[in-house]
């Protein structure tokens, strides 16, 4: 135990070199507060376990509270203390693991999973699985993000892929009746949908909303056979194949002038610029649906699977799992909580409102998401989606890519130069950290 903790402490010191905090698509966090749950019973014999995670909205927090209360009612010998950690979640979890104060069960997003799985701080869950848990019911694309060295370390609680959101009124005004099915079509549509009402050079509506982050560009890289990282975990996104995918965004933004970033139109997200009518198309996840329907109730929009690129169907998938702290003294109880939250009954209750998609196929079918007009495209995408993972040191790769790609998008430097610089700086950082730790990296397949 001491060896693992000491190693983990050295890792945290090394992480200070690059301020590694990255928020994904899935981590739209607000505030920071603890939410103690009302106990169903105050019996002195009940054992308390801690559940750590973040919340994206009050509605989500309320739903989880109800779900945990239901768990406690079914397990009167177990109480759950829910700890909401919305500020620098991953840093807090790493620090608490070092101090032997981490939650018994906690959220772990796929992006961070390779590092945690390699450090011997998570409990392998294989031995706890029983036939009635129905492991085969999970979407394999999601499950494999939490497999390492022939073990399963987490079960995904939900997920989202990316889909094309388009404004139906804007399409009709431009004489368009169906969504684009190829990226070339999307580019043509984008030109038609870009509107300058006053003919004064100021665009009132762009055709497409561009999000220049690796999490939203990775599928373009993959469509041309490019890689995000190599088999040793080093950044590899500056290859010729990768640049072909990234050039699509550059050309549309610089040559066509038919796409815009959120900062170009004074908004904070892709969903917001779409909802405000600043863009007619945007690529977003399931999280955008409740936001758009609640915030812009008069908006008429639809979704479609992402257009093919280079004759390839690609999208991204973002997921978060429940994992068990290896140091917990209450492993049996921790598994009871994980198996309930990711079981068919618990997952049905968790995803029934539609703010997240169930990672179990049977639950998705039961709730009808594969037939939902707005969610069909998102559910279909999971079969060919690329998991959002970039090795053990994601911040080194993601931060360098995002910084340099924005520079290229704005025309401040050539794309090839920007990506080579980002790749070199990321790999120098990874090499320095690995040498300092003298620890092996995960081989990325």
TrEMBL record:
This protein's UniProt keywords: Signal, Transport
Pfam families linked to this entry: SBP_bac_1
InterPro entries: SBP (IPR006059)
Coiled-coil annotated residue ranges, if any: none
Keyword Iron-sulfur: no
Source domain of life: Bacteria
CDD domains: PBP2_UgpB
Homology family: Belongs to the bacterial solute-binding protein 1 family.
Name of the protein this chain belongs to: ABC transporter substrate-binding protein
